[in-house]
């Protein structure tokens, strides 16, 4: 069993569904999701094929972890991202009900012992997301 895990999604996942859907994305779903556990970690650069990416991780032991560096690169065909639901913003203490994103931002969602980071560059910004991973 893996105690620490790390997932990378090209796009985002909600309740087991990937967004954008397969008809709206250049890659099939199985090529948009990678899970790493134990020694199998992504100590390399990964680039999304759109302007939204999801990092999900579980770090149960204090002192373990990783570093993520994010870079935004030009994207001539961005996706439009609109979220409806509750998200606790790392930029304020308020729940956000529904919003349109106007500039890139990083949202952090903590659920029990798992944490999700949604990295978004909006269509107006026209960016891919490049994430580089390294050990602490």
UniProtKB/TrEMBL annotation:
UniProt GO cellular component terms: extracellular space
GO biological process per UniProt: hormone-mediated signaling pathway; negative regulation of corticotropin secretion
Residue ranges of domain Corticotropin-releasing factor binding protein N-terminal in the record: 6-71
GO molecular function: corticotropin-releasing hormone binding
Pfam families tied to this protein: CRF-BP_N
Name of the featured protein: Corticotropin-releasing factor-binding protein
Organism: Caerostris extrusa
Gene designation: CRHBP_1
